[in-house]
Design brief:
Layout: H1 3-8, H2 10-27, H3 29-32, H4 65-101, H5 103-117, H6 121-132, H7 136-162, H8 166-173, H9 178-214, H10 226-232, H11 242-269
Helix pairs in contact: 2-4, 2-11, 4-5, 4-7, 4-9, 4-11, 5-7, 6-7, 7-9, 8-9, 9-10, 9-11, 10-11
Length: 275
């Protein structure tokens, strides 16, 4: 799709703009942040937005809210990206093999997916996180362990459809090896579905990380993360509304932007959604 076509797709353009701003904030946080996000100054505690040197105010410890929101974008996007890559690789490979080779391993995988889907996603992620421990790496592992089933089920369904097409059947009839058929004919036709699922899951993982951090099982203070910032703001909602408003708005707008980009990619890459 050309740039002009993207601009005609208003929601897609809006989503790409919001996502690009979030990425820019994360990459340029050391340059854009006016203060150290973890340095406390009790004399500057709970300064309202518009205070000199603190455009978005400060928290109860005198830490600059703008700086913490900018650095929080780094945490959210890093965990979202790592988790999406993990789920796409693990779920994609398992779904590809289950759909192509079939048999009892494929059926066993699908029953495992059914069992896992019977548990609420966030509860399962919290349980796994409590087992593997705290930290950015373990949050990504927990979310990926809870979210890989979506990739596996979608990829398996696509593979079952693709391997029945005439060109795949013709390649098999000509004696082409199964590995060559899998990677040359099946995988390229399944790749768009993997990209679509990954883009739609990205915002889910960002919000899930914020929820886990909000509950105290994710990113630990003083590291700035939107979820932990929202948790810390609960005791000050009536006297310092900005402590919840700005990280909450950043989380909502980033998730909205990524969701809109995912919808646009689905419309572009999936022929079923083309008009």
């Amino acid at each position: 799709m050309s740039g002009a076509a993207l601009r005609r797709n208003g929601l897609g353009f809006l989503g790409l703009t919001l996502a690009a701003l979030a990425v820019l904030a994360a990459l340029a946080a050391p340059v854009l942040a006016p203060h150290d996000p973890v340095k406390a100054d009790l004399s500057q505690g709970l300064k309202p937005p518009g205070s000199p040197g603190h455009p978005l105010g400060t928290d109860q410890l005198g830490r600059d809210t703008l700086s913490r929101v900018l650095y929080g974008a780094r945490v959210a996007l890093f965990i979202g990206l790592c988790t999406v890559l993990l789920t796409a690789i693990v779920g994609g490979i398992l779904g590809l093999l289950a759909g192509f080779f079939g048999g009892w391993p494929g059926q066993a995988l699908m029953r495992l997916c059914d069992v896992q889907l019977s548990f609420p996603f966030i509860l399962l992620a919290l349980t796994i996180n409590a087992i593997v421990g705290l930290g950015l790496r373990n949050i990504s592992i927990s979310l990926a362990a809870a979210g890989w089933v979506a990739d596996a089920r979608v990829v398996r369904g696509e593979v079952l459809s693709v391997k029945q097409r005439d060109y795949v059947q013709a390649a098999a009839a000509l004696g082409t090896g199964r590995a060559r058929i899998l990677f040359r004919h099946v995988l390229p036709n399944v790749a768009p579905s993997i990209i679509i699922v990954a883009s739609l899951q990205f915002s889910q993982f960002i919000v899930a990380e914020a929820a886990i951090s909000f509950l105290g099982f994710g990113v630990q203070p003083p590291t700035p993360a939107w979820g932990s910032m929202l948790s810390e703001s609960r005791d000050f909602l009536y006297i310092a509304w900005w402590l919840a408003a700005f990280p909450g708005a950043a989380l909502a707008l980033t998730a909205l932007g990524v969701n809109l980009v995912g919808d646009w990619l689905r419309d572009v890459l999936d022929p079923k959604f083309r008009v």
